[in-house]
Design a protein that fits this description.
The protein is α+β, with helices and mostly antiparallel strands. The protein is built from 5 helices and 5 strands. The chain has a 3-stranded antiparallel beta sheet. The chain has a two-stranded antiparallel ribbon with strand order 1-2.
Length: 126
Amino acid sequence: MARQAVNPTRRPAHASSGAARVRHAGGAEAVHLDPVIHERVRLAIISALAVNDLLSFNDLKGLLQITDGNLSVHARKLEDAGYVRCTKSFVRRQPRTEFKLTASGRRAFDAYLERMETVIRQARQG
């Protein structure tokens, strides 16, 4: 797998509350969506948490119809970005993992939705 060059002057899309825009040849602008949220499973996780205060690992897994491993990997990515908080505990000697959307995650999700609405409006006009 080839490594991509890193541009130190450019912040990651998820680090900004506004849409990062790049001008292409011909003057057209491309909207860059937060890559942490834009992936299908992570978007589903953050969407589910946006309408539920708290969801257990099993609740999320059942709701999204995904495997344990898939949920673990994507939830960790959201947690590493600071969008989701994961707490582990025991209930009647059974391990329980719960997820909650953080304030940062809520802001990132709201910004993502605003950008998507803008893209849709522009597509309908053009």
